[in-house]
Amino acid sequence: MKDENDWKEDVLRHLRGVFEELDINHDGVLQKEEVQENHRPTDGESSDIEAQVIALFSFCFEEIGKLNKESWFEKRNGITIGDLLVLEQLLREEDVDSLSLDRKRLKGAAEAIMKRTREIYRLNPALFGSDGEALTSVRPLAVRRGNMGDCHFLAVLAAMAAMEPEALASMIAVGEDRSYTVSFPGGISGTGGGVRVKRPGVVELSLYGRLTRMGYWPMVLEKAVQSELEMTSLRKVVDPAFYLELLTGAPALIIDLAGITPDLISSTLFEYRKRPMVAVSASTSLAKGLNSDHAYSVIAVDSAAPSTFRITLRDPFGPKHPAATSSGRLKDGMFSIDPAEFAGSFQKLFIAGSKRQ
Question: Which domains occur in the chain, in start order?
Answer without folding.
Answer: 4-123 (no CATH), 134-231 (no CATH), 253-351 (3.90.70.10)
